[in-house]
Design brief:
With about 180 residues, this protein is α+β, with helices and mostly antiparallel strands. It is built from five helices and seven strands. It has one domain. Strand 3 and strand 4 form a beta hairpin. The longest helix has 20 residues.
Length: about 180
């Protein structure tokens, strides 16, 4: 193979790589209110809470959840971390259409948890370990009734509790926002 054909082959190969590689049209900085699951996990642990490993769901909104528990009480908080504030706003609007609005509180997002509160790309919902255990037991009993062919009781035996997010749990995120 001569030098000219080797150079031509290299040029064609390099051109193909450039042609098929992704191009970045423009870079946009993340909003200062967008949190990552890792940031939130670190922040809540630093404030003395237990935090389970993040779980990223296969849903179209690509939400990641973090379960935070308070070792001093039965409080359990679920953080729903959306990829960005725009996705979170769209999900909130959709949930408000489904669930309606409450005075000063966001819509309910997860069965067994109370009203939501939103900070940037994060939604917080609160419950208690006992409340979640009762919710799970009620759902299991209903499923068992269906599996055995018994008619379901009319109405929901355990509607979502009216929990609002406690201020100290909100302050962890608000403190993080102030330090960004």
């Amino acid at each position: 193979m001569n030098l000219v054909s080797a150079t031509s082959m290299f040029s064609a190969f390099a051109g193909a790589i450039v042609a098929f590689s992704p191009h970045v049209a423009s870079a946009q900085a993340a909003s200062s209110t967008d949190f990552t699951p890792d940031q939130l996990q670190t922040q809540y642990i630093a404030h003395g809470y237990r935090v389970d490993a993040p779980v990223t769901w296969w849903t179209p909104d690509h939400v990641t959840t973090l379960r935070v528990s308070d070792p001093a009480s039965e409080r359990v908080v679920m953080l729903l971390v959306y990829p960005d504030a725009a996705t979170a706003a769209a999900e909130r609007a959709s949930a408000e259409v489904r669930e309606g609005r409450s005075a000063g509180m966001g819509p309910r997002l997860i069965s067994g948890y109370g009203y939501s509160i939103w900070r940037g790309n994060v939604a917080l919902v609160e419950s208690t370990a006992d409340g979640l255990a009762r919710q799970y037991a009620a759902e299991q009993a209903a499923e068992n009734q269906v599996m055995t062919g018994l008619p379901l009781a009319v109405g929901s035996p355990n509607p979502s509790p009216p929990y609002a997010i406690d201020q100290d749990l909100i302050d962890v995120i608000d403190t993080e926002t102030a330090s960004l």
